[in-house]
Write the structure tokens for this entry.
Amino acid sequence: MSVIDDPGSAFDLTVPVVVIGGGACGLVAALSAHDNGAEVIVLERDPVPKGSTALSSGMITACGTALQKAADIDDDTAELFARDIQSKAGGKADPHLLAAICAGSGPAIDWLIECHNMDLVLVDGPPYPGHSRQRTHAPPTNSGADLMADLLRAVDAAHIDVICNATVKELIVDGDKVSGVVITRPDGSSERLGCQTLVLASSGFGGNADMVKSWLPDMAGSIYFGHEGNQGEAVLWGQALGAACEDMGAFQGHGSVATPHAITVSWALLNNGGILVNQNGIRFCDESLGASELAATVCQQDGNVWSVIDQSLYDGALRFADFKNLQNLGAIKSGMTAAELAQACRLPAPALEQTLATLKKSPALTAPYHAIKVTGALLQTQGGLAIDSDARVKRPDGSTLPNLFAGGGAARGISGTDGSGYLSCNGLLSAVTLGRIAGREAAIQATALP
Ligand SMILES: Cc1cc2nc3c(=O)[nH]c(=O)nc-3n(C[C@H](O)[C@H](O)[C@H](O)COP(=O)(O)OP(=O)(O)OC[C@H]3O[C@@H](n4cnc5c(N)ncnc54)[C@H](O)[C@@H]3O)c2cc1C
């Protein structure tokens, strides 16, 4: 049972604001609750908080930041940012949530730097595809692990307790009001922690194969590249309390992950002339559609897909650590001719020869050739609990639950309704900005209560 209805339940301890999940969203929510005057505690299932945040490149998009202004980018607005996101999402992102996230994004980054001494920089170079301005902020190393380390440092400096090895299995409720949570420890023991307000920052359901099968059937059985601990409890708890879920078919995928090595092969190779062929040696998609868009199509080829490139693409890719790693692992097969490559990959030679000879793609692939066996992967789910612009969890009729907040992967995203609407860095944008909003609103409500 995910929700225990127990009015008047006794608790081992009560804390005004409880946050479930110690990734970017949960840690930012905790900092925000603290700065708004509430005592707050973070509950994290892992021995050390990592989440998908630590697996990421730590890149957070935000508009109107001091870092942008220092780089002479002084015309990036919430409206422009929202337009870019909506354009990728096919107009299907919730406009109110999108407006709140875009407006809150710049202030959130400025606050993390000014008030919590976070080491974030504006990423160099031109804007990422789909972004009208350079608005990507990240640790200087572009490392999600470093982002997590810096957030944990900030949380520690604020004397906020992060309780690890603390899996929340059940919520304790009085009607649809949450009064506390049940924490299960690795030795099987459990504790009851009371709260005035609860923030769900336990991310999405990518680690839950059954939920992926139900909500994202085209991605069922694909490699999951995010944090395994993201089991979709936020959705299950919310549903048990009568909350609405939205955009449940939305996700970020990747259609070119080396198998069995589980290392992403840059989509830039396919944008610059490379092709995907199936086990029959035949090209089966237009690679320009994009990495996430084609993840499901690649999965449907039963994991038997080869990413084919030529020598100039190969030489250019060797400067990337992941590609070099694949080379060292022997994942790259080569042939001086199409027939030789087919033999190395155990593909039918006549079909591959014909595919390459009749290929109309610019720039053209020329012999010698190389190929890597790839499959499709799920990076993160983008559907989740419906929330309003204060990160309050909503019911299907639009009303809000009394004291429940959600952000990051636990909440619906701003990436439309399927695998094609994710604009780069929507994930941490939602985690950081909604984390700040959820923490603030949870603190205001918790401290206002008698
Ligand atoms: C390979 C990869 C690269 C990415 N790169 C980027 C990028 O550069 N930019 C970007 O914007 N996005 C990126 N993303 C997406 C981004 O990582 C996520 O959107 C973001 O980290 C979500 O943050 P979160 O706090 O909601 O979840 P998480 O960081 O996953 O944190 C959730 C935490 O909740 C804990 N938890 C879950 N259930 C429970 C429970 N029942 N009890 C206690 N604890 C629980 C988990 O253990 C976890 O620590 C990437 C994703 C992947 C997989």
